[in-house]
């Protein structure tokens, strides 16, 4: 059978891929070599007292069964009782068998060597690979024989076979060859073999992936090969993917997990795992590794791109450790820790974890410390960035101590120190510290403390000056801060902007830039919108600088859809309209304001925007602006010019006839237009305002009712104004506002309007029958403020609920 695997093994057993190599022999087998009990060639032959020879393990098992069955020991062949069960080693026979085995194995290995080439058929290669497996599993020392026989490179070549079966078996064979054998592993580590094995991790056939990962697991037990495996592009990424795959079988997942655990011995592999989403090894090294490794991996953590959930995990796992490193005296260690903390503090949930871990006191100390052991400015910038991240997490900072005297971040001396740093450092740290103040002024619990500290420091003008900074981030931070401050120190900020050279112009330039809508533009217009709306000096300066014309053009461009798609479009539009509405608050004092409103037909714009459903602030601001414009109508209405009387009429008045003038406004008794006199009746605004009276937002209702009240105000024909409201079916919605009593302001305004409506007898008669209206007026009469109670009294008199001679309140007119 030399040169063939055909005749010496049981061909019927190949169906399951197993080969019975113990039956495969090149030399003839002698009967003396075979154990009568096992029918197999003996490895440790022993002789009984009667001269019969058996395999030691088999005869010992026979004697044990005899004892357990209560029988005396007998010879398995002769069945005669034995006086002794002593076993005598057959050394000569064993040596002969070993020599015979060695000759057979050598011949079989030689035959395997001849079969292991890519030119052989699958039917020749498969038995050869299986024999090598059998040979290595028979004895650990046989692996050295395979090594010395140079069979390993041949098996590696089989990985290139076109047969999947051969490739899978080659991978399996290599795994068996390298198990617990460092020399054989070293051979596989040479050349591109490891790269080839890694490629199998991505193969379609699950069996190939399973065998490849099992082989890599064996190789990864060698520390020398861990770095080699990790250096293969994609190896760790694929292994990490396998551990989380739901399509791989459990054995493959388990082996991939164990392989990665072995690869963690190499720091570069730990870095790769972290880059590919497996962070726990890196975190463990930061917690438990040598100091040098801790610092190296902490700095590396700072460069990783992490999602929010991972940042929270990292903060919870190593946050306290990093904070402790940051507090150490070693500058290199502090830099590494700061770098990592900067990364993980940049999302709100992880920042809150760091706050609870105690990050604030050392951060503040690092920022304010000067002299020995102080941080260089580049690291103070990182500290400032972390502090900005943490403060903008929305936490309550008025209860967290950060200084030795129980100061908090909003304590006056801490805020003063921040303001001092802002004025004496570079743009980067200035920007971050301004962002800290933005965060502190965004909370209603801390904003007043910051405002107080800013006022006491006299820093308002210096903060306003940053509006002109050339750096976008710095400019944005300053604008956002001033916007947060403006509700609480609007007059001081308006004075600073009005008196400063260029700051107001800078804000207007930012707003007017026609490059989409940026966060900075939304913040800039929001700032101007928050400033006191009746500040005549500021409005005049804006008129002089042409701000309102620019703002009008931006509003129109948004209406035309030229700036769609920006996430800042709504706050930008709201801010633009609030600023544009400023001009309507100074109409009586500023002729240029009236001219601007006429030029751009602002009344028409605000009427159109009343129908901006879903934009409550736009509707509220538009209604307020229309109230202001309508109040000015009575002053702008042009009275008709009467033709001069004739000669006879001048001498004899009886000959004169009063001319009839048509086209006069019912409300203002003159010539009105929407564009030039802002008449709501001419602009058909009444119906639109009435439609807003059932709005869910009380502020929109209040602004709409205030605008409607101008059609029945002093200086207009109140009776005609009531008729206008009737014709627009506005009486019931106005009464409903009174009945709902949603806010005190709405009640006050509704009582005023209802009293004017009830001056019309027909309406008063009809309303007098509604007990709900009477109850609402009585409630206002009893519980409202003094002025509203007076008006409610008059309304009750109109519907005969109080006699006219009653004088509970003096008649105020």
From TrEMBL:
The pathway this protein participates in, as annotated, is: Protein modification; protein ubiquitination
Reaction(s) catalysed (UniProt annotation): S-ubiquitinyl-[E2 ubiquitin-conjugating enzyme]-L-cysteine + [acceptor protein]-L-lysine = [E2 ubiquitin-conjugating enzyme]-L-cysteine + N(6)-ubiquitinyl-[acceptor protein]-L-lysine
- Per the database entry, which stretches of residues form a coiled coil? none
> Which domain of life, per UniProt?
Eukaryota
Q: What class of enzyme is it?
A: transferase
Keyword Cell membrane listed = no
The entry lists its GO molecular-function terms as: ubiquitin protein ligase activity
List the InterPro entries hit by this protein, alphabetically: ARM-like, ARM-type_fold, Armadillo, RING-Ubox_PUB, U-box_domain_protein, Ubox_domain, Znf_RING/FYVE/PHD
Gene3D superfamilies (alphabetical) = Leucine-rich Repeat Variant, Zinc/RING finger domain, C3HC4 (zinc finger)
Q: Its GO biological process terms?
A: protein ubiquitination
Q: Which residues form the U-box domain?
A: 28-107
Q: Which UniProt keywords apply?
A: Repeat, Transferase, Ubl conjugation pathway
Catalytic activity, EC: 2.3.2.27
Fetch the PANTHER family from UniProt.
RING-TYPE E3 UBIQUITIN TRANSFERASE, U-BOX DOMAIN-CONTAINING PROTEIN 43
Name this polypeptide is given: RING-type E3 ubiquitin transferase
């Amino acid at each position: 059978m030399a040169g063939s695997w055909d005749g010496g093994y049981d061909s019927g057993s190949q169906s399951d891929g197993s080969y019975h190599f113990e039956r495969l022999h090149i030399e003839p087998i002698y009967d003396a070599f075979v154990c009568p009990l096992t029918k197999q060639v003996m490895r440790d032959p022993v002789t009984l007292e009667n001269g019969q020879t058996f395999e030691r393990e088999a005869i010992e098992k026979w004697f044990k069964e005899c004892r357990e069955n209560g029988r005396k020991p007998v010879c398995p062949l002769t069945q005669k009782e034995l006086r002794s069960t002593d076993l005598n080693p057959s050394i000569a026979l064993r040596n002969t068998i070993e020599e015979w085995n060695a000759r057979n194995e050598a011949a079989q290995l030689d035959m395997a060597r001849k079969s292991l080439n890519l030119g052989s058929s699958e039917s020749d290669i498969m038995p050869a690979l299986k024999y090598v497996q059998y040979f290595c599993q028979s004895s650990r020392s046989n692996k050295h024989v395979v090594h010395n026989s140079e069979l390993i490179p041949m098996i590696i070549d089989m990985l290139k076979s076109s047969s999947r079966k051969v490739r899978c078996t080659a991978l399996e064979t290599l795994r068996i060859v390298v198990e617990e054998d460092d020399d054989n592993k070293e051979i596989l580590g040479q050349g591109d073999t490891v790269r080839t094995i890694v490629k199998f991790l991505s193969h379609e056939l699950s069996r190939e992936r399973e065998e490849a990962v099992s082989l890599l697991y064996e190789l990864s037990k060698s520390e020398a090969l861990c770095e080699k495996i990790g250096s293969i592009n994609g190896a760790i990424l694929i292994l990490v993917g396998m551990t989380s795959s739901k399509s791989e079988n459990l054995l493959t997942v388990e082996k991939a997990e164990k392989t990665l655990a072995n690869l963690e011995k190499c720091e570069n592999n730990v870095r790769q795992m972290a880059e590919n989403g497996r962070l726990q090894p890196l975190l463990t090294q930061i917690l438990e590794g040598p100091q040098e490794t801790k610092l190296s991996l902490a700095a590396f953590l700072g460069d990783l791109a992490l999602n929010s959930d991972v940042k929270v995990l990292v903060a919870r796992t190593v946050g306290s450790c990093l904070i402790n490193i940051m507090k150490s005296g070693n500058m290199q260690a502090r830099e590494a820790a700061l770098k990592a903390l900067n990364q993980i503090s940049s999302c709100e949930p992880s920042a809150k974890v760091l706050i609870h871990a105690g990050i604030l006191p050392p951060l503040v100390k690092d920022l304010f410390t000067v002299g020995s052991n102080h941080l260089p400015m580049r690291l103070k910038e990182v500290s400032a960035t972390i502090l900005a991240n943490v403060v903008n997490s929305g936490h309550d900072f008025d209860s967290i101590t950060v200084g030795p005297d129980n100061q908090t971040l909003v304590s006056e001396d801490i805020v003063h120190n921040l303001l001092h740093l802002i004025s004496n450092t570079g743009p980067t740290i200035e920007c971050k510290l301004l962002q800290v103040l933005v965060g502190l002024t965004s909370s209603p619990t801390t904003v007043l403390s910051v405002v107080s500290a800013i006022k006491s420091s006299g820093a308002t003008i210096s903060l306003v000056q940053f509006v002109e900074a050339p750096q976008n981030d710095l400019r944005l931070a300053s604008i956002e801060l001033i916007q947060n401050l403006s509700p609480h120190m609007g007059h001081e900020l308006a004075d600073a902007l009005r008196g400063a050279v260029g700051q107001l112009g800078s804000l207007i330039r930012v707003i007017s830039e026609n490059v989409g809508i940026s966060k900075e533009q939304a913040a800039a217009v929001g700032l101007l919108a928050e400033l006191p709306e009746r500040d005549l000096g500021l409005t005049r300066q804006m008129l002089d600088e042409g701000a309102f014309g620019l703002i009008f053009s931006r509003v129109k461009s948004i209406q035309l859809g030229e700036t769609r798609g920006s996430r800042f479009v709504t706050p930008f539009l709201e801010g633009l309209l609030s600023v544009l509405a400023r001009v309507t608050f100074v109409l009586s004092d500023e002729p240029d304001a009236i001219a601007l409103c006429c030029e751009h037909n602002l009344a028409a714009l605000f009427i159109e925007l009343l129908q901006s459903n879903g934009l409550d602030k736009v509707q509220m601001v538009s209604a307020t602006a229309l109230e202001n414009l309508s109040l000015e109508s009575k002053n702008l209405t042009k009275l008709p010019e009467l033709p001069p009387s004739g000669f006879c009429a001048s001498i004899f008045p009886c000959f004169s006839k009063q001319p009839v003038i048509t086209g006069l406004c019912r409300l203002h008794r003159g010539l009105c237009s929407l564009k030039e006199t802002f008449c709501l009746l001419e602009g058909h605004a009444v119906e639109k305002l009435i439609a807003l009276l059932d709005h869910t937002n009380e502020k929109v209702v209040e602004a709409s009712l205030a605008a409607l009240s101008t059609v029945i105000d002093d200086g207009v024909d109140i009776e005609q104004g009531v008729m206008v409201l009737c014709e627009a079916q506005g009486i019931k919605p106005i009464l409903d506002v009174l009945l709902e009593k949603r806010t005190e302001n709405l009640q006050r305004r509704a009582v005023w309007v209802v009293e004017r409506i009830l001056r019309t007898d027909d309406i008063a008669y009809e309303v007098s029958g509604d007990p709900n209206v009477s109850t609402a007026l009585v409630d206002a009469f009893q519980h409202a403020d003094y002025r509203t109670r007076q008006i409610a009294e008059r309304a009750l008199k109109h519907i005969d609920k109080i006699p006219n001679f009653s004088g509970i309140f003096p008649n105020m007119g």
